[in-house]
Sequence to fold (127 residues):
Amino acid sequence: MDDDQLDRAFVALGDPVRRAIVARLSRGSATVGELAEPFPITMQAISRHIRVLEDAGLVTRSRDAQRRPVHLDAAALEQLTAWIDRYRLDAERAYRRLDAVLAAAASAPSSHPSQNPRSTDMKEKQS
Fold:
């Protein structure tokens, strides 16, 4: 997936109505009328939302006699997931390294004077 496709997909998913449409389509294909049912907006508005999802490559439409069902493109969602996972895995590796450093620091004896009560006591005696 190139940068333009990613941009269009994330912009499309940035809207709560379009995310709800994608969630509904994940359970199976539906017509525009079926997709419009839960929303207090016009069929034209739903059609525009579907067009944005189509332009992003997230949904497709087909013809079934008089019906024009909308289908979720699972492969496009898989590409988005793969893109996100690449960065999620990098972040997880960095956090695991940080956890290891913090664990090693916590188990090592303290050598910092402000954390060593004897060195503080000695400074007070010298004053």
Notes: The two ends are 69 Å apart (CA to CA). The chain is about 65% helix and 5% strand. The beta strands are 59-61, 70-72. The mean pLDDT is 87.
